[in-house]
Design brief:
By secondary structure, this protein is α/β, with parallel strands linked by helices. It is built from 15 helices and five strands. It binds nicotinate mononucleotide (NCN) and 5,6-dimethylbenzimidazole. Pathway: Nucleoside biosynthesis; alpha-ribazole biosynthesis; alpha-ribazole from 5,6-dimethylbenzimidazole: step 1/2.
């Protein structure tokens, strides 16, 4: 037997043929929304969120098994001295997540969200993107496939987050490769890179995109050359959720870069996603606009670890509860506008 397929082939095929929303469930939800005891449109974006849940799950809006998935990876590019924290903090924070001591643990408890942490070969950082590919095609595809397993235990709302010292540099490089401009437009302080650290970060992003320039017309090549394991896994998880029609909340600057790879491969690939929160990272709003999205929250956070998506999950749960739990004009005996 001759093996002819390349590792990305299955993902390219999946991306070509994505399922769309369920129109019948959307129409039913719109119909019910019109009957609820409120002036039309008065719940603003909560109404849009309820319709989004119905369209993607194919049933009345509900959130019964929300899950926050955090993917952790390490990056060879950190050897350039671009971050105030050492790469060992990635593993240490994974342990902190497991022990319940991180911000994300408290947000998950507050909104009753499940939390799963996926650490990705933390002892084997990716290649230094300034002079080599971050990942081989085989490693990148295997990591995307691993990310797809995040939903295997079942969920009806997936919040996508990450942890990885150096990964705001990676996100900036991906954005520069996808959208152009200058490194300065996409590089921000991350966990606190200023002065010489920030200059080296900008140089690393410029050099990396220049080094890989001849190969950046293919989004999956951008992912494997400039990305990282947590970025590849997040892309896989978002794609798997789409195939299973599970709505997704995307977290900050880094998670958005993973999502952007899918959008570049298929313009409809993020129709099942909302952006939970616009990060304080300066390039995030522009990156969100490139996806044609409006973030649900703007709280000035720049933490990552799924925090913005998890906070937005609280809003999404409230939207579903309003839609399913509110009385109708008829059931509550409240006069509707047309009743006079
Ligand atoms: O996603 C964001 O908006 C975001 C903004 C700033 C920092 N982070 C988090 O900080 C880490 C990356 O920052 P840095 O400075 O090491 O590139 C990584 O663990 C991210 O989760 C994340
Ligand atoms: C302490 C710390 C916590 C984090 N959470 C997400 N990214 C992080 C980066 C650092 C440095």
């Amino acid at each position: 037997m001759t093996v002819t397929g390349l590792p990305f082939d299955d993902f390219r095929a999946l991306l070509r043929d994505l399922p769309g929303p369920e129109t019948a469930a959307l129409i039913a939800a719109r119909d019910r929304d019109r009957q609820l005891t409120k002036p039309p449109g008065s719940l603003g974006r909560l109404e849009e969120i309820a319709m989004w849940l119905a369209a993607w799950t194919g049933r009345p809006p509900a959130v019964n098994r929300p899950l926050v998935a955090i993917f952790a990876g390490n990056h060879g590019v950190t050897k350039h001295g671009i971050t105030p924290f050492p790469p060992s903090v990635t593993q240490q924070m994974v342990e902190n997540f497991a022990a319940g001591g991180a911000a994300i643990n408290q947000i998950c408890s507050t909104f009753d969200l499940g939390l799963k942490i996926f650490d990705l070969a933390l002892d084997y950082p990716t290649g230094d993107i300034t002079c080599e590919a971050a990942l081989s095609e085989r490693d990148c595809a295997a990591t995307m496939a691993f990310g797809m397993e995040a939903i295997a235990g079942g969920t009806d709302l997936l919040c996508i987050g990450e942890m990885g010292i150096g990964n705001t540099t990676i996100a900036a490089a991906i954005n520069l490769a996808l959208y152009g401009g200058t490194a300065e437009e996409w590089v921000g302080p991350g966990t606190g890179s200023h002065g010489e650290l920030l200059e080296r970060k900008i140089n690393a992003v410029t050099t990396a995109v220049e080094f890989h320039r001849a190969h950046l017309d293919d989004p999956l090549e951008i992912l494997r050359r400039l990305g990282g394991r947590e970025i590849a896994a997040m892309a896989g998880a978002i794609l798997a959720a789409r195939v299973q029609r599970i709505p997704v909340l995307v977290d900050g600057y880094v998670a958005t870069a993973a999502a952007a790879i899918l959008k570049a491969a298929n313009p409809t690939a993020l129709d099942h996603c909302l952006i939970g929160h616009v990060s304080g990272e300066p390039g995030h709003l522009k990156a969100i606009e490139k996806l044609g999205k409006t973030p649900l929250l703007a709280l000035g956070m720049r933490l990552g670890e799924g925090s913005g998506a998890a906070l937005a999950a609280g809003i999404v749960k409230a939207a579903a509860a309003c839609h399913s739990g509110m009385a109708t004009f008829e059931s509550a005996g409240v006069s509707n506008q047309s009743d006079g």
